[in-house]
Amino acid sequence: MTVMTSTDALHTDSADTGTALRFITCGSVDDGKSTLIGRLLVDSRAVLADQLAGVQRGGETDLALLTDGLSAEREQGITIDVAYRYFSTAKRKFIIGDAPGHEQYTRNMVTAASSADAAVVLVDATKLPWAAEVGDGEVVVRELLPQTRRHMLLAHLLRVQSIVVAINKLDAIDDAALAFERISGALNDFAAAAGVRVEAIVPISALKGWNVTEPHREGAAGWAGYEGPSLLELLEALPVTAAETQQPFTFPVQWVEKFSSSADTSQGRRIFWGRVGGGQVVPGQRVTVLPSGQTATVARVLDHVRREHGVAAGHSAGIVLDREVDVSRGDWLLEPGAFEPTREITATVAWLDDEPLVPGRVYWALQGHRWVKAKVQRIVDRLNIATLDAEAATQLDANAIGQVVLALQQPLAVQPFTASRTLGSLVLVDTASHRTCAAVLVR
């Protein structure tokens, strides 16, 4: 596993680097995430003069207030919910999600990461013991904040394609180059041990704007010993997540529309709308309905503006079958013979509820738009985010990551999350309180 620190490492083959990039900022509390986004918005001229005037504090601009939209966020000076902002450069458009750093709001970070193409993980250099020395002068800087580790692991588990680490607040450190070198080393060690691919590590000052939109130089040399591109230049070169067009056809039915009341029985008289999860759909294609097991042939395929042509993964479609088949919201249209529905799954769980996960509990499991009851058969282990060891566990507490075995009341077609985001992901919901309790990634 190699950790890259320049654009030489970025995916360049046939990756899509022109489509709008959806990325999140994450990390620990007060690492400067909201300030960084505010800096990107201001320097890209995405903020109007009256907006800037509204975030003045003591005669200075408080960049963090540009994303803290809730009154509680402004009062407490923390990020609670995910705030989405939009900006563009001459090369690209961006959608930013400012994810909260507090452990209490980890579920919000997971929500934002699940649909992100990239993650910018911020590390506050002033919080880490980068200057510590032991023994014969051997430098030991392996400490990272727990939430930094957790967010990097979650981004990796959720298949966020590109992870960039920005070491922030180096402007407040006398020897920025030494701090950047040692903290980068700690990040490299953690990424290698966890199997996390990091696209780049860049030193920044979100407050002053150094290395954010343009490379910062000290004389002829790069600041903090870094000679690479700025953070924005890195983001402009990152690819968007490719649709799973090479996977078998999968289609979760979201809405059923009756479009004809005629007596014509040459085809079905309903349109099944949803988003193609994998593969593609074209007229003449055979499909199987889950859970009924019936098969039919696709008679017509409509895109999101009702034009008739084939639709590939990642795009919305309306499907008309060649005959009337019992299909409702929550059902799946699948490639025949490609999947074997199962009632038991082993999965990695990011537990998000305050009440611990324990064996025997029953939850609602949501896959696509289908709800089924799921019972926790057993907890296999829990991941220690400090040592990365799998430990025996009898329960999973809030924000823990572990492996569990779930027994389903009805069979579902699943694939490992590494192969399919659509069939490999579920959400657990408390049956009484209706709280979202966990993100489930099928192994």
What is the strand arrangement across the widest sheet? Answer: 4-5-1-6-9-10
The description of the largest β-sheet is:
6 strands, mixed
Number of strands: 27
Strand content: 25-35%
Distance between the termini: 21 Å
Runs with pLDDT <50, length 5+? 1-13, 69-80
**Number of helix segments?**
7
Would you mind describing this structure in some detail?
By secondary structure, this protein is an alpha+beta fold. Helices cover 15% and strands 33% of the residues. The protein has helices at residues 33-43, 49-53, 71-76, 106-113, 146-157, 176-194, 231-236; strands at residues 21-27, 56-57, 60-61, 83-88, 93-98, 118-124, 133-134, 138-139, 162-168, 200-203, 217-218, 221-222, 250-258, 270-275, 280-281, 286-290, 295-302, 311-312, 316-321, 332-334, 342-351, 362-367, 370-383, 390-391, 401-412, 425-430, 436-442. The strands form 7 sheets. Strands 4-5-1-6-9-10 form a 6-stranded mixed beta sheet, with helices on both faces. A 6-stranded antiparallel β-barrel has the order 13-14-19-17-16-20. Strands 21-25-23-22-26-27 form a 6-stranded antiparallel barrel. The longest helix is centred in the middle third of the chain and has 19 residues, at 176-194. The relative contact order is 0.11. The model is unreliable at 1-13 and 69-80 (pLDDT under 50).
